[in-house]
Amino acid sequence: MGNQNTPQPISALTAAQYIRVDRATLAADRTPVPDFLYGLLPESLVDLTWSDPALGVHPYAWLPYEDVLRDDINSATHIATQEGETFAVNLPVGVVRVTPGVRSLTEGEQEERRQRVAKELTDAKAAKLREANRECDIRINALTSTYPATEVLTFSKQEMEARAFLVDELAPTPMIDALAMNRNVPKLELVARIIGKADAFAGFTGAVVGYRQLLEDRIDAATSMSVLSEIDPLAGWPV
């Protein structure tokens, strides 16, 4: 037998289990799922902006609902009343119908829940940004992982002397002179190597840091947990 938890395509038998939600206002009603949407998986009905506007479903979502007691409503982002029924809308999770006869959330309770949802999003953004920052550090540090820390500290001095030498061969270059002598490498060759590595390091570092900043911008711009969940801080990095 198949897994009963596997989402089933929308059909005439299951369409009645869904509530229509206006994504802009979060108003909810019992407008049935149009038959031309039959065959789609439930996740496809959460955001229909991909559909042809001429079909008339562009601004809506059809979300599954269940009956619950008022006190069991969690993280509702909007409370909608339609023809005597009260719905707690939480995009993109779903809709729950408050059991008739049980009061809906007060404005104060709604504001409290909105604040909690906002805090959850803020905390999730901070965690996502920490992942991006950690990945950035890992990738940049990998470039110098084969060098002792004390040598890494000399890189900027080596580059400064090398670039000064290219401008003026009489410029003092005590570090490069010592490196060339002890490494038994001609000074001009060593200067070329230093500048080549410095330019490559700068290019790669700039690409990695730039991508980290892009991730930060996307994380900051996320307006919901669903949008934030689409951002993978471990994917897409320059190589």
Description:
With 239 residues, the chain is of the alpha+beta class. It has two domains: 15-105, no CATH class; 122-229, no CATH class. Helices cover 43% and strands 13% of the residues. The chain contains six helices and six strands, in the order ββββββαααααα. It has helices at residues 107-141, 149-152, 155-167, 174-183, 187-221, 225-229; strands at 18-22, 28-29, 60-68, 78-82, 85-90, 94-98. It has a six-stranded mixed beta sheet, with no helix packed on it. Helix 3 (155-167) packs across helix 5.
Keywords:
6 helices; alpha+beta; 13% strand
What form results from the Cα inertia axes?
elongated
Give the helix level as a range of percent.
40-55%
Strand order of the largest sheet: 2-1-3-6-5-4
Biggest pleated sheet? 6 strands, mixed
Give the strand content.
Answer: 5-15%
Helix run count = 6
Distance between the termini: 45 Å
Q: Name the structural class.
A: alpha+beta
CA radius of gyration: 29 Å
Helix and strand succession? EEEEEEHHHHHH
Domain count, please report it. 2
Uncertain residue ranges: 69-76
Please, what is the average pLDDT? Answer: 85
Q: Total number of β-strand segments?
A: 6
